[in-house]
Specification:
Layout: E1 2-8, E2 13-20, E3 25-29, H1 36-42, E4 46-51, H2 57-60, H3 63-70, E5 74-76, E6 109-110, E7 116-119, E8 122-128, E9 137-141, E10 144-148, E11 151-152, E12 155-156, H4 166-175, E13 185-188, E14 194-195, H5 196-202, H6 204-207
The structure holds zinc ion (2 copies).
The site of one zinc ion (ZN) has 5 residues, from loops.
């Protein structure tokens, strides 16, 4: 399992290629704006899926460009299926200076808590981690979790956008993400990677809720 990280667009959104060098297959997690660099790196692989942690524009603004190139099905939580086609819901209309209204076609598949996918030779465990947005998902692949904008290195996602809920986010982090083994690597939607164990110790939003 090879993890390639790309910081795409003006918000430096972490988007990932999870590559299987044996099968020459790969997954893409999140579809940030201006994904050319990611698409170049995905070139040698057959991309089996584009998994979206959530549908804020900085995670879906490049979706149609990625789809046109890799022709892979897109997966999202049903709570944010409609957001892909609605620039008010995905937030792109709120910040016109960033790029203007962004929309994409609906996702081919919807994901729910505890779904298990077998794609590109990997087992992907789906975790609902709402709070930053109502359909936020985290994806566990082996001992790596891709946490979107729920959990960051030493911080957590904002909850002041439509559908955000601070209590719900804290519950998601405490009951879902912090239940993972300490050595689990965390690959967030923005900023540097970390581990569950480090965040238990050093994340001020997490250490206060761990009893
Ligand atoms: Zn977000
Ligand atoms: Zn984001």
């Amino acid at each position: 399992m090879n993890i390639h990280t790309f910081q795409l667009g003006p918000l430096q959104t972490n988007c990932y290629i999870i590559a299987n060098s044996e099968t020459k297959e790969a997954l893409i997690i999140d579809a940030g704006m201006s994904p050319g660099e990611l698409l170049d790196a995905a070139g040698p692989y057959t991309v089996k899926a584009v998994l979206l942690t959530h549908a804020h524009f900085d995670h879906m603004g490049g979706l149609e460009q990625i789809r046109n190139k890799v022709k892979a099905p897109v997966y999202i939580h049903p709570n944010e299926q409609e957001w892909l086609g609605n620039a008010d819901l995905n937030g792109s209309s709120r910040w016109p200076m960033i790029g203007g209204a962004m929309t994409a076609q609906p996702a081919e598949h919807e994901l729910h808590d505890e779904d298990v996918l077998e794609l590109a030779g990997f087992t992907i465990r789906v975790m609902e981690t709402p709070g930053h947005s109502p359909g936020s998902l985290s994806f566990l692949i082996e001992d790596h979790v891709f946490s979107g904008d729920a959990l960051f290195n030493r911080s957590i996602g904002r909850t002041d956008l439509p559908g955000g809920n601070y209590e719900q986010l804290i519950t998601s982090i405490h009951d879902k993400l912090m239940e993972l083994p300490d050595e689990t690597s965390v690959h967030p939607g923005h900023g540097p990677a970390t581990t569950i164990g480090e965040e238990k110790l050093y994340n001020p939003f997490v250490s206060g809720i761990m009893g």
